[in-house]
Design brief:
The protein is mainly α and 479 residues long. Helix content is 37%, strand content 9%. The protein has one domain (2-55, 64-472): Glycosyltransferase, CATH 1.50.10.10. β3 (31-32) and β4 (37-38) form a beta hairpin.
Amino acid sequence: MKRRFFLSSGSAAVAALLAGCGGGGGGGAATDAAAGVNTTATPGTTGTTAGTVTATSAATTGTPTPAENPAQQPQQQPPAQQPQQQQPAGPRPAVAYPFGARIDPYVAGILPTVASRASMDASVKRSYDAWKAQAIADVPSIPGGKAVRFGRSSTYITVSEGMGYGMLIAVLMAGHDPQAREIFDGLLTTVRARPAYGIPVAMGGPYLMEWRLSINGNSAGDGWNAMDGDQDIAMALLMADRQWGSNTGRWNYKQEGIRTINAMKAWNMKPDGTTKGLATSHVSRTSDYMISHFRAYAKATGDSYWSTTVIDRCYWLIDRMQTVYSPGVGLMPDFIVQTDTANPVPSPGGMGDFVDTEMHYFANAQRNPWRWGTDYVTSGDVRWKNVLDKLVGFIQRDTGGNPAIISAGYRLDGTALNRSYSPEGFIGPMLCGALVNPSFQPFLNSLWTWNANNFTTDYYDSECQLIPMIVASGNWWQP
């Protein structure tokens, strides 16, 4: 299954078409990954700023109804969830956390000192406006539905990964963009209109998104979900509850978020806290380890599984990858396999996204500094600082502190895979990784300047720049 275009810098030429459903499925039923066939029966600019900061069941109430989906589909049609009925809405609610407010200061880490807050905010706003103009599209087959475009594809309009990115961006940019909630609700309308119909209702299928949609907006991912997309969707829903409230519009954001969280626990997670793969449950994608999200899930649901079992397991797996397979370098692979054993190993390839780069720090793991740096500045959990001290320390040494020559991928021994261009999607997430240690301050400043001056609107790369820029400017917050 193919998920994203990985675009090169500047020319926006397609450098590779990467597969991407393997890390986001679940182990609820055995599957023929190549055909997407269920093999078991299933039921139904300048300036300064201070740089250092001190240190349930899945099925829930509500009956889905079939989605309007005119294209031919597999025999089972995906049910669409209708918005929860709310009391009549009053005046449009105020934005609780407008962009730039920085209501919740970070509890740990550093910030760029090469630009003032106002300058950083202006860079983020400018980048967001360019992203929005390129990325947001109406979905032909879903009234009121919006999507984050899947690059320049003429076959697919979106993937769930992009929908999650878009929802996070929209809720964070409220206060700058008066259309932020309209965009958010349009994206959510699409998410709920195209559920992962191959996943049983009892396992939460109606609250997980079909991982890929055709250019007309019809289901085109064989009925399965991708966990990374659903994780960001759930997080964005919890943030929307804080931003706009859950009883002022069409959707009860918090309830929808909890439904998706419970569905992921039922379908995408093992009891020991390991994320599952689609083709086999013993494959785990390192970029699914969204630690700050897990803390938010625990807070919203009251389920400490997310904040203890899951986070502890993620750290153990990453520490093993760094210590055993990347000593002195500190990288980790896109995918880990044999997670059912005492000795998990990097994927040999062809087991997660079904490509031959799964053993490298590549197009999935490139997001890890963003996710773990975000957690450190908001939680202060020193484990993720330790992980990033190794990873970012290596990248800083490898490049001499020059973001432009970060390689588009590395072997775990630190060998660069491709320096033929400056890969925005690798450079952007490094911003968050560099937030964790004052020794990275010069590198962080260079990373900020490079990203602010070299923002792309290409899919995936742009989101991997924009959200880390929001975080690095001090504008991220937890629900």
